[in-house]
Every structure is written in C-alpha cells, then in structure tokens.
Amino acid sequence: MSILVNKNTRLLVQGITGREGSFHTQQMVDYGTNVVAGVRAGKGGEWIHGVPVFDTVQEAVEATGANTSVVYVPARFAADAIYEAADGGIELIVCITERIPVLDMVKICGYLDAKNVRLVGPNCPGLITPDEAKVGIIPGSIVMPGPIGVVSRSGTLTYEVVYALTSRGIGQTTCVGIGGDPVNGTSFIDVLQMFEADSETEQVIMIGEIGGTDEEKAAAYIAHHMTKRVTAFIAGRTAPAGRRMGHAGAIVEGKSGTAEGKIAALEAAGVRVAANPDEIVGMVA
Amino acid sequence: MNLHEYQAKRLFAKEGVPIPHGDVASTPTQARAVARDLGGKVVVKAQVLTGGRGKAGGVKLANTPDEAEALARRILGMNIKGLTVRKVLIDEQSPGIQQEIYLAVLIDRARRLPMMMASAAGGMDIEEVAETAPEKIFRVHIDPNIGLRQYQTTYLASGMDLPQNLWPDFHKVAAGLYAAFLKNDASLAEINPLVITGAGKLMALDGKMSIDDNALYRHADLEEMRDVDEEPPAEQEARLSGVNYIQLDGEIGCMVNGAGLAMATMDIIKLFGGEPANFLDIGGGAKSDQVATALRIILSDPRVKAVLFNVFGGIVRGDEVARGIIEALSQIDASVPMVVRLLGTNAEEGLRILEEANMATATTLSEAAQKAVQLAKGVQR
Fold it and tell me: What is the ipTM of this complex?
C-alpha cells in the first residue's frame, strides 16, 4: 500500500506544453506513471510525449477519467488552474508552482475544503509512490519501495533524505512534499494520519523547517494519535530571526516558529530529532 | 516587502482610517516647512524599515518649526540598526492621549485565514503581551468571501472594554485596515498604537505594512514604493535576478537550490565548526545565467573564504547548474576554493562538466560541508 498516489492514479498534467511541464511529463511517463492527459488552452488535439492534450480540464476528465492533477502553470495562472481542476472533478490536485500570492491560497483552500478536494502544495515537489506513480518533480532515481513514509515541507531537502535512505537500501511507501508556503493545502497532520492508517508504512520521517506552527501541531498529534515511530529533522537552526529565508513560509517571527521550539515540542512528543540530515538514515535503520 | 510608516498610514487613510495630518521630509528645511504648515507642534519620526526607532532617538517632539528643523537635522542621516535615515515623517502632535490600542490583520497560517488581533495593551511589543498576558489579545478570523463583519469588531471592542460610543468608529477603523490589507495583498497590516485622542477620537498614530512579494506583480503602485536605499546592494542584485540571498557574517558562501536545503546546509556548516556567509536559494528552474549571478553575488562578500555548492536536481537540472558555475568562473577571478555537490536530475552530466573543469566534488552533505570548512580554514585572503 501507499498513500495518495499509486498505480490506479490517472494523472492529468496542467501546463503540459510549458518548459517545466513538458520536461517533467516526460520524466513522469518514463517512470511509469499513468499520465492520461494534459491541458493547455489552445493546444487541444496535440500530443506531447504520447499524452493527449485538451483545452480544458473538463474535456480531459470526460475523455480520460483523470482523477489526479499536477499543476506546472506559472504563478499568475496557477490559481485559475487549481479552481479549474476542482470544478472539473479532480479529487487530488498537486501544485508544483511557486510564488502564488497568499491571499489567493486562502480563497483556494476555502473553496477546495467545501468541495472536499485535496490539494498538495503549492510550492512543493509533489509526491511519489516508488515503482507506482511519480506526481511532480521528485527524481524517480532516488526512491525505492519499502516501509518508510516521508513527509516534508521542503523540496530538495526531501531528496537529500530519500536519497540517503535508498543508498542504504531502505525503501519508502510514499514521499510527500507538502510545500513551504505559509498557506497550503495539506498539513503534516493530514499526511501523518494517512501514514498511521497505511498498513505498509512502518515508520515515518518528517522534515520540517522554521516558521509557522505546523510542526508543533504535528507534535501534539503524534503524542496522542501515532503508534508508528516518527523521526524528524528541522531546518533553520542557524537562520537569523526576522528574515525571510526564501520560502515565504521559512521565517522566524519573533519568538514563535523557531527551530528550538519545534525540536523541543517534537522531542516532548517522543519524536527523535536528527541534528544533521545525514544522521536520519541511521536512526530509522 | 515592508513599507515605511508614512506609506502604510497613507494606504490606511485611503480606506477611511483617521491618521494625523503630516508629511514626509528629506531635508531639515522641508521638515521646517511641513512643521510650519501644521502649526508648529509636531512629532519628527525617522522613517526606517526597522523597529526600535523610538529607543534609538529617532522619534522626537518639537514645539516650533525651528525645533522641528533642528530635530530633523539630527535624525536625518542617523544610523538605526545599520540603516541610514533618509526621510522623516512630520506629524501633528496628538495631545492628551487617553488610551493606546493594538490592532492588526495578518494571515493565521494554522487556520489558513486572515485574522484580526486587537488589544487594549497597545504601544507595547505585542509578542510580549502574547507571552505574558495572552488573555488581553482578542482575535477574530475573517472569511474573505464574507469580509469583516460588525459583530466581529463588536466582539473585539467589547473585549477590550472600549467605550461604547466608540464602537461604530472602531468598526470603521477595523474595516478600513482590513480593506487596506486585502486590496494591497498585505501579509501584515498593523496600527500600533491606535489611540483615543484627547478629543475622544480614534486615530492611527503609527502604521506598519508588509506586502506579499508574490503578489507584487499585480501592484505596480506598491512596487514603486520600494525603498531600494534600505536594501543591501548584493540583496538588491539578487532580488532583481530572481535569487533569494541574505547576507550573514560567516566565511563559507553557500549556493543551494531550495530554501529548506539551503537552511540545512547552513546548519550543517555550523555543525562542523564553520559559519555560513549567506543564505542563497537559486530557486526552482534556475538557469545558468542565474547561477552565474548568484556566484558573483556570493564572491562580492570579501569575508567569503570558500564556497559550497549544494544542488539536488528536481526542477533544476544539474547540467544547467554546472554550466552556470563554469560560465560564472570564466567571468570572475575566483581564487576562493570551491566544493560542488550535485545530485538528482541530470547530475551525471553536470558532474562530468565540472570534473572536466577540475572542480572539487563531494557525495554526501557532511562530506561537502567538512571539505568547505577545511578549505575556509586553510585560506587567507
């Protein structure tokens, strides 16, 4: 088993004709993901990497039965793409696009909650269930099937940890990048819940960073509801307060959201926290 | 992007929030003229994008235009937390203040909604209030589809024990602040203090606003308000080329893709006894010219004694990064040693390019960080 995506995923790519969309569609197809359609208004009827392109999500869903979408469209069109996917009947939307305004995300999240549509991201690397489905940009070469569930707010830091796991022969059920924006669709708790319920996931690795309170909330959830072992890493111990570290999300606001606070909350919940991402592998082995 | 007090207050005033009469001045003579027009009794306030202006002596009362001019002369050019004061705001004084209130709108990340916070303990550091007397802060969440409702501001006003006759005015101020927040894609809009004047009126004496950088593309008017004088030149160059760069005090320059990995790289450098010279995220889809710019920016810091590249390709391709590094090195005289770690999409091709150029490479993050720390210690510049 796995969470969110698997071999039954019927993937639709929004922004399939763009530079990133096209490049990563090829990678997803090569990985064996069931990419059934692409959408780009005005390019309906074309084919890209063996995938039929439609003008609208609705047409794509009607023609192909797509149930999951991945969004690569540029930031200023991304909100529209997400609404279109939700209205077109997509159940899971994975948004890779970064730099979507926060107030747009506030409205999007409210809308998707009301429609019961799940969004992963934005500003995230997507997710991958090894040997089944790659939805997003996580390199397929660094994962392998196995018992570890990985959830992370960061993109490349996730690769770092997953690569180390795979190099040591430790596989993963699903790796989920939830994204680093202040307002996003899926939280740590959402994913922890899914891993807790997934019969194949034996342990979970959680990668957080400074800013916000998602890690602290996850710690409270872990303490009360998780039976599976959780190992964590928090990035940003050396980040100066009050400065925005790239991610809109990665900022220490005064006393809240510091790495120290998050690590203390996680350790109090029985989570082992690594000081260095290279250590994590040894802690789950 | 943070706005100056006078910019924020003007945006609030546009939405009906009462602010003191006043104007900005960048010379003592201008300050005198503004003070004269306001009747002489004014407050002279340094306009810099940092807190603690009052403590630093950047906010002073003047009773005559002459005093205002003298104070402006003293405050203009003053250095407050590393920033030079280039403008002062001259506001009329508000005598007989009865009460100071804190009022702000920001995004509550956990609830994924804008939240208005109000406290009768205004004028103070609100984080301190939150820590020592959390019951003094009242909060309401705002659904953007419904807007800020009267019952919500009534809840805030009654919670703060605001005199009942001021509730309607408080609602107008709160609604104005929320409108300014929403229209300008702010991530924070704050009035601290919102005062009850001697005449019993509400007035925003100070204002602060941060604009969501990701929304600036639809606010050309706000982008024009950016005070580039307050931005370190290297950070400005980075911003214009789409690179996230923050200068720190260490000796190891870092170029990393992804904010999380960039922070982890800084952390691990410190773990192995080094100090990061910067945070630098080349972002998603970085092209070779962006990498070249990023390297130039890192090397413009004379404290940098070694550079660590840590690039894990997902959306960024390893060969693009490698070409960027080579291209940058062909333009810059780089005597600083470098360690490159490249993994992920097209990493093999990237490494081949780098090895052909005789660059040091590393496999694990620990190895890369240790090498960089050693190189930095062995080099005198």
Answer: 0.90
